Amino acid sequence: MTTARVVQVCTGRARALAAAGREVLSAIGKTPVTSAVAVGPLGLQGDEQADLTVHGGLAKAVYAYPCEHLPFWQTVRAQAGVAAWGEALPPGLFGENLVLQGLTEADLFIGDRLVLPGCVLAVSEPRQPCFKFNAAMGFVHAAKLMQQSGYCGAYLAVLEPGVVAAGDSVTLQPGPREVNLRELFLSRRRG
Q1: Among 136, 138, 145, 10, which residue's Cα sits nearest to residue 64?
Q2: Rounded to 5 degrees, what angle do the CA atoms 134, 49, 51 make?
Q3: How open is the CA angle 55-99-48, to the nearest 5 degrees?
Q4: Residue 66 sits in a domain of what CATH number?
Q5: Residues of the chain where predicted confidence (pLDDT) is lower than 50
């Protein structure tokens, strides 16, 4: 069993976002919360998803992203000229609810369970980036870089509702281990 931890918990409300030359509704920019947050079948209390055709629902209730990829995004944002070199990325920029440390896409398989002190989540699928991700990151090739790198993060279903907080330990309980999250993400890119 692998043990990781929750570095940050983020929630957000849907709001207007300028993306691809138009204004759209989006909840991609989340903000950190400092106390425990209730987790129900459809996600974190106080969190919204603007487009339920691609985000949210039972299978995509929570979005987790590994902090191990943040240096990559800091570098490419600086290279694109939208951030200073070494500028920290704000938690929630990717639309993530949980910033995790110690688990990346290569470690996760569909059906794996993430056991936290106050809830149990299951890896359900990789996140597919869209034009809103480009807008949030500040440059037009962000979604393409996510596709190429495989740094997609994981959508999670809520198996046992409860609470989640920054600092919580996360124990990985392997599922069937047949479909790796990163490999599935990359195969959809090629497919």
Answers
A1: 10
A2: 70
A3: 30
A4: 2.40.33.20
A5: 191
Burial class (CB in 10 A: 0-12, 13-18, 19+), 6: buried
The total of structural domains in the chain comes to 1
Closest CA to 71 of 56, 61, 83: 83
Whether the Cβ atoms of residue 184 and residue 126 lie closer than 8 Å to each other: yes
Q: Which domain holds residue 174?
A: 2-190
pTM: 0.96
What does the DSSP 8-state code read for residue 104? -
CB 43 within 8 Å of CB 63: no
Alpha helices in the chain (DSSP H): 70-79, 131-137, 142-149, 181-190
Task: Answer whether 4's CB lies under 8 Å from 105's CB.
Answer: no
- pLDDT tens digit string along 79-130? 999 999 999 999 999 999 999 999 999 999 999 999 999 999 999 999 999 8
